Amino acid sequence: MAASDLLRPALLAAARSPRMERTVTKIPVTRNLVDRFVAGESEDQAVTAATGILGSGRFITIDHLGEDTTDLAQANGTVAHYLTLLSSLAQLAPAAANTGEPRSIEVSLKLSALGQFLPRDGHKVALENAHKICTAAEEAGAWVTVDAEDHTTTDSTLSIVRELRQDFPSLGTVLQAYLERTEADCRDLSGPGSRIRLCKGAYKEPASVAHQGKVAVDDAYLRCLQILMSGQGYPMVASHDPAMIDAALQYAQANGRGADDYELQMLYGIRDAEQLRLIDEQQHLRVYLPYGEQWYGYFMRRLAERPANLVFFLRSLTST
Ligand code: FAD
Question: Which residue ranges of the chain lie beneath pLDDT 50?
Fold first, then answer.
């Protein structure tokens, strides 16, 4: 077994540990590495980074970092951040809004940051909070996509997405190829007007619900991609993996999809040169741009994905 396969579960467990969060966020050099993946803490910093990315011909989706909130005030605070963000984004994007072409500006939401885990009425609070953000996004000419979190949230998340889509038909959602259920979800959700972001999946999931190991996950990703590309929706191919990207381009061509009928997506700070190369090839490429103070969980999942990032982090620790 590769060292990365051993480290990944430990890092993903640490991503959910408040004790590890207190330790890691206190290490001064952590900040340098975090800056590679996170575009600052304020709306102004996020909008500045987004403006540069849009200027290069790429699209953006902006995520206000935060997750697993069990505090109503914090959930409401997250909504306020999105509303501030969207009022700035409105000035960047109006022309793209109603042309039928892909919208260059999007925000991504985590329902667990909007109150999904509140003890009594989490589902209702998250739904209402997401509804407020979708309303503001519509006015700003931006799309909204709901992120996928761990498998215990999938049913609740997809049910909230179904409810929201009655008022906001362009609402996108994320499916994780590593979950056994996802091929069926892709079939259910690949109808006209749907926007599905397909990713491999970033959480620590048990073998009872998820494919384990890179080969099985990659195979599942390709099966899901086939379903979405031959469906009637708008597939959003979220991967840095050259094999997945090549397959996406082939499947798109085989299904007669033009450049406006699907898009590629990568995370901020990852494979920047490849992102620009794909733009030169006339592909639509959207950058997932996270910002905010609650970067710990997001950062640890990036370390878990790529041992080179962890080595870089450990080296900086030992050289201080
Ligand atoms: P991996 O299997 O991690 O990498 C495969 C190959 O890609 C590597 O071998 C290498 O060739 C190349 N590669 C990867 N990283 C780098 C790098 N830093 N530099 C150079 N080459 C690299 N997960 C969720 O669970 N929920 C979500 O809502 C979610 N949203 C996402 C949105 C976007 C836009 C993206 C891109 C990812 C999202 N993810 C989400 C994360 C996703 O699930 C994966 O954990 C993550 O993308 C890593 O998988 P991968 O497909 O890039 O391939």
Answer: 96, 320
The token pair that represents 46 in the structure block: 């996020």
How far, in Å, from the CA of 8 to the mean position of ligand 1? 13
197 classed as catalytic: yes
Whether 81 contacts 64, CB under 8 Å: yes
pLDDT at 101: 82
ipTM above 0.90, yes or no: yes
What is the pTM for the complete model shown?
Answer: 0.93
pLDDT tens figures, 58-87: 999 999 998 888 899 999 999 999 999 999
**From the candidates 197, 218, 286, 302, which is the catalytic residue?**
197
- Taken in order of first residue, the domains within the chain and their CATH numbers are 39-294 (3.20.20.220)
Residue nearest to atom 37 of ligand 1 (CA): 238
CB-defined site of ligand 1, < 6 Å: 147-148, 174, 176, 199-203, 214, 238-242, 244, 265-267, 270-271, 288, 305-306
The residue annotated as part of the active site, out of 147, 150, 185, 218, is 147
